[in-house]
Amino acid sequence: MGAGHSHGGGAAGHAGGRHRWRLAVAFGLVASFFLVELIAGLISGSLALLSDAGHMAADVVALGAALTATRIATRKDTTGRRTYGSYRAEVFASGLTVLIMLAVATYVTVSAISRIGGSPEVATGPMFIVGGIGLIINIVALLLLRSGASESINVKGAYLEVMADTLGSVGVMVAGVLIMITGDAIWDTVIALAIAIFVAVRAIMLAREVLTVLGQHAPAGIDPVEVETKLAAIPGVREVHDLHLWTLTSGMNVATAHLVSDDPSQTTALLEQAQNLLRTDFKVEHATLQVEQDPTRCAEVSW
């Protein structure tokens, strides 16, 4: 019986860590603009502007959490108990972003509904000015985070948060135009509700990804049946069992498996071929594999 494992470059190859500077710049831009939008919303009386300011406050928290998570994820473990490191900190940060987005969507919805039937006065001038500046800030942040969103669930959470806020800035300006044209402040409420729905839908989509990782499901794009079939097709492998595939954090897929072989002299060669196959075909950098001659000796666990 033999066992082997392979792994990538650790923190050096960490997807979130590579984009930390982008998160830092985006955080600085959004945090610097939040107070401006909040004050303008209070002065103008615009619910759309206030909701967008609330969402920008959520951006500050979400970006700050994402930035902190990348630092924690690459921090060296000094306890000896975190055998997988602290990479899951990024996934938890994404979960926090989901909760923030849902909270903002709920607040905006309740505030918008409470305004129905009333006739609030809304100053459209500040809506245009602040909404326009906010749009520019958000677009810059989006451009910074876009490339990292496809690689890291942590950066993706921050990207979606900023995307929703970008829509909020556009919504503020659209609401201002509609109020000027129709003279009816109801458009401020309608736009706010539309923003809330968009934010809630995006939050739910991100939540599904977070739960998939925390639930240790097979990584997206990897079919366990295909992995098992390809491993079994390696010359000398008679059977594959106890195959497990999961994601530690974005860009870090992990696998374990038992390979049954009739020739103990091929153990080293089988391990090398299997590890290379997992790395090249499925982007699994860390694989722990065991080669057995008698599968009946592998006692099944009770769960």
Give a quick precis of the structure.
The chain is an alpha+beta fold. It contains nine helices and four strands.
Would you give an account of this structure?
The protein has helices at residues 15-18, 20-44, 47-73, 89-115, 124-149, 153-182, 186-214, 224-232, 267-282; strands spanning 2-6, 239-249, 252-260, 286-292. With 303 residues, it is of the alpha+beta class. It contains nine helices and four strands; from the N terminus they run βααααααααββαβ. 64% of the residues lie in helices and 11% in strands. It has two domains: 11-214, Alpha-lytic protease prodomain-like; 218-297, Alpha-Beta Plaits, CATH 3.30.70. The model is unreliable at 8-13 (pLDDT under 50). β3, α9 and β4 form a beta-alpha-beta unit. The chain has a four-stranded mixed sheet, covered by helices on one side.
How is the secondary structure organized here?
Blueprint: E1 2-6, H1 15-18, H2 20-44, H3 47-73, H4 89-115, H5 124-149, H6 153-182, H7 186-214, H8 224-232, E2 239-249, E3 252-260, H9 267-282, E4 286-292
Parallel strand pairs: 3-4
Antiparallel strand pairs: 1-4, 2-3
Helix pairs in contact: 2-3, 2-5, 3-4, 3-6, 3-7, 4-6, 4-7, 5-6, 6-7
Main location: membrane
Keywords: Ion transport, Membrane, Transmembrane, Transmembrane helix, Transport
Family: Belongs to the cation diffusion facilitator (CDF) transporter (TC 2.A.4) family. SLC30A subfamily.
